[in-house]
Amino acid sequence: MASKSRWADTADDAAVEAKLKREKEEKKRIKAEKARKAAEEEAKRKAQAEAQQRAAQAQAENEAANDDNANRPSAKRRKLTPEPGANEGEAAAKTTTDGESAKLLRFEAPGTGTWGPSRSVENYDKLNDIEEGAYGWVARAREISTGKVVALKRLKLDSSGRAGLPETGLREIQILKDCAHRNVVSLQEVVVGDDTTLGRIENIFLVLEFLEHDLKSVLEDMPEPFLASEVKTLLRQLASGVAYLHDHWVLHRDLKTSNLLLNNRGTLKIADFGMARYVGDPPPPKLTQLVVTLWYRAPELLLGIKTYGTAVDMWSVGCVFGELLTREPLLQGANEVDELTRIFELCGIPTEDSWPGFRRLPHARSLRLPSSSKQNAAATGSVIRARFPLLTTAGSALLSALLSLNPDARPSARDMLLHEYFRQDPKPKHEALFPTFPSKAGQERRRRRETPNAPGRGQPAELGSVDFSGIFANREKEERGGGFALRMV
Ligand code: ADP
């Protein structure tokens, strides 16, 4: 309480002082009221703007989801989410430090459009394991209240002991939440384990639409390869999903047959966004090179490029194309050096003409390549044609283009959709006529041959200075039974 003024000697003085005080308080009250109103107005304005933005975004996504039309121009690109940062680390820093992200587990409740704490996994009954390995756990489950069958994928939590999701998990949720396309798996909600206590979440699960198969298991088990018309149906759907992702500034960075799901109605959907991220145009200057499972990894990544773009996914699409034709992964390198060797044998040796600037890539500086490389058969596409003798001219032109060493020479996913390969006979088979396969995921765990994982989940091999100058001669030797080894220089 204020002490009595030493000047307020008389009753009049006291009255005047009291009046002044009242006036001052009134002014203060009016000022506070004004500030409160202004804050309210500002909040209202912000909420309106956000609602408008959300509505516009939902509409754009809707349009894109419905737009399976291959003729859409590639120049029309929309950015749904602001670029999180110039380099990989920033996104993680942002999501873990700002107040909004601290409430990450308040996701939109399904069907309500409202935000609230994530529901418990106890709302689902586990039916069977689909995949349980060193890197993750996926199960088939049924939502108790609706009876709907879903796939539950447990996210890997930070192994460093810090409470929270690693950056990959945050990105996977964010990107899946933003995506709506018939060839991208849909995320229904995020749920938490029942062992969750206040302030500590032990288990986080993605609730995904369930698909009966993944392409890798189908390819391994099918007695006969896909027909040409079936390869086209699958490839066109893959290109359509990838085009949607790239239009929305998402790089998947781990496209491979085990991440492509297939339902019994012949629909293919891209899954596993654990390696995916948003990029801008131009792409951030420092992106991690440790992406994409080795057998599907583009040569520019193997050569240590720091700024890369959508072409890394298109290389993987080329590898999937080859695998659809033969049922075997196309480039099964034992390590990074061996992977590059196999790539050069299939696609030719890069030259400054075919791939301007490749020499400046970090690991290319120390490569010793054959000088007569321009004449080598692989560079002309004849090795690809010989390896896929049943592929039409248009098909092998598309495959060769996707497997261009120079990333700029690879077609975009939108370009690919327009390729004549899809227009020529045999035409892509209608999805409804697609063959069905017995679903392993429906009854039992999927058992597969070992394949490498994306490098974030394993240890990358070191690419030192490598001498490729003898690879073609060495290959001849190997064909004669002599074996070959690369020399490290
Ligand atoms: P990880 O990040 O651990 O590799 P993925 O998302 O790739 O996990 O899933 C691993 C496997 O689980 C896939 O290869 C597929 O066989 C199966 N799977 C993943 N999502 C689904 C789904 N929505 N429906 C059915 N099976 C799925």
UniProtKB/TrEMBL annotation:
<comment type="similarity">
    <text>Belongs to the protein kinase superfamily. CMGC Ser/Thr protein kinase family. CDC2/CDKX subfamily.</text>
</comment>
<feature type="region of interest" description="Disordered">
    <location>
        <begin position="429"/>
        <end position="468"/>
    </location>
</feature>
<feature type="compositionally biased region" description="Basic and acidic residues">
    <location>
        <begin position="16"/>
        <end position="48"/>
    </location>
</feature>
<dbReference type="Pfam" id="PF00069">
    <property type="entry name" value="Pkinase"/>
</dbReference>
<keyword id="KW-0547">Nucleotide-binding</keyword>
<keyword id="KW-0418">Kinase</keyword>
<feature type="region of interest" description="Disordered">
    <location>
        <begin position="1"/>
        <end position="102"/>
    </location>
</feature>
<feature type="compositionally biased region" description="Low complexity">
    <location>
        <begin position="82"/>
        <end position="93"/>
    </location>
</feature>
<dbReference type="GO" id="GO:0007346">
    <property type="term" value="P:regulation of mitotic cell cycle"/>
</dbReference>
<feature type="compositionally biased region" description="Low complexity">
    <location>
        <begin position="49"/>
        <end position="63"/>
    </location>
</feature>
<keyword id="KW-0723">Serine/threonine-protein kinase</keyword>
<dbReference type="GO" id="GO:0005524">
    <property type="term" value="F:ATP binding"/>
</dbReference>
<dbReference type="InterPro" id="IPR011009">
    <property type="entry name" value="Kinase-like_dom_sf"/>
</dbReference>
<dbReference type="GO" id="GO:0005634">
    <property type="term" value="C:nucleus"/>
</dbReference>
<protein>
    <recommendedName>
        <fullName>cyclin-dependent kinase</fullName>
        <ecNumber>2.7.11.22</ecNumber>
    </recommendedName>
</protein>
<dbReference type="InterPro" id="IPR000719">
    <property type="entry name" value="Prot_kinase_dom"/>
</dbReference>
<feature type="domain" description="Protein kinase">
    <location>
        <begin position="124"/>
        <end position="422"/>
    </location>
</feature>
<keyword id="KW-0808">Transferase</keyword>
<dbReference type="InterPro" id="IPR008271">
    <property type="entry name" value="Ser/Thr_kinase_AS"/>
</dbReference>
<keyword id="KW-0067">ATP-binding</keyword>
<dbReference type="InterPro" id="IPR050108">
    <property type="entry name" value="CDK"/>
</dbReference>
<dbReference type="GO" id="GO:0004693">
    <property type="term" value="F:cyclin-dependent protein serine/threonine kinase activity"/>
</dbReference>
